[in-house]
Amino acid sequence: MEFPFDINQIFTERVSFLDQNLAADRWTARRPDLQANLATVIDELGRASAKAQQLTAAVTSASKLQSQRHQLYLLKDGESSGGRGAVVGFLKVGHKKLFLLDRHGVHVEAEPLCVLDFYIAENLQRHGYGLELFDFMLQHKNVEPGRMAYDRPSPKLLSFLEKHYSLTQNVPQVNNFVVFEDFFFNRAAVQLRKTPPKKPDGEIKPYSLMERGAVRQEQRTPPWPFAPHQSPQRSGSSQCSPPLSVGLSPTRAPHRVSVSSSPGGTRNQSRQSALIEGGRERRSSSLSRPQPGFP
Ligand SMILES: CC(=O)SCCNC(=O)CCNC(=O)[C@H](O)C(C)(C)COP(=O)(O)OP(=O)(O)OC[C@H]1O[C@@H](n2cnc3c(N)ncnc32)[C@H](O)[C@@H]1OP(=O)(O)O
Q: Which of 96, 97, 100, 112 is nearest to 276 (CA)?
């Protein structure tokens, strides 16, 4: 991906790490002109990724990176474009609080590192760049791919995970995240803990019934005498994480499919995100994604 400015001036390393500060290094941070070009690159990559995934709006942009606690790895080819360099692709990750089902169907709460967006320029796909970038991130974060969650992975990403990391057996979820069997294996109790029992009528509501944006905490607390006695641990967990960070991604379809039988689970735009109630708070995604088919 080429740009009308010097990529090597903005990104000095082959792989750059970006967070909400939106600067590849101190040098860029002090140069508003470079920061503006960097933002242009991120926006352009986000648009290209959305197009490749047939999303109606970008999951990644410079402004989103600044406002969300996500991190982005950007891979460049410093040699191309007559030495000015070109951008090869990016990988965006971030922690999210998720309510997941283990292989026995038991609800567990976790806050794993999630793959949120991943894109390699069209003409460079299937050349090993995705693997290079992904491996870089794994090493940087010191995490195993099977310990991560994947936000509505595309068929290409599922194929990628199967090919490079032998991740094939996903554990069906009611939200858009995909986790594999390794996710639950020997996980520390602090990272993964069972949520309180579901109410008998703990139904799953379609995403369209959810409030967008912040869900007011006070709405979730039933009046006396119905207010439950909560352990400090539980009440802490329900309050420390804003609803926006919890487990659902609006524009990606739920993954009830088995990777082995249907690599790719759909990444269509249907809004089947779900809300689980019953002893737990409402949840919504931190990703502002489009919801075609829903007003
Ligand atoms: C949570 C999310 O981010 S989901 C969004 C994932 N991103 C996308 O779908 C955007 C379009 N796709 C891409 O950008 C890239 O294909 C990526 C990021 C998924 C993978 O990057 P690449 O550089 O192509 O991967 P790399 O070359 O290291 O590995 C190739 C393997 O990836 C998978 N893959 C890559 N492209 C394709 C494709 N067109 N069709 C099927 N599988 C593919 C295959 O397993 C492939 O191995 P193969 O060629 O032997 O079949």
A: 100
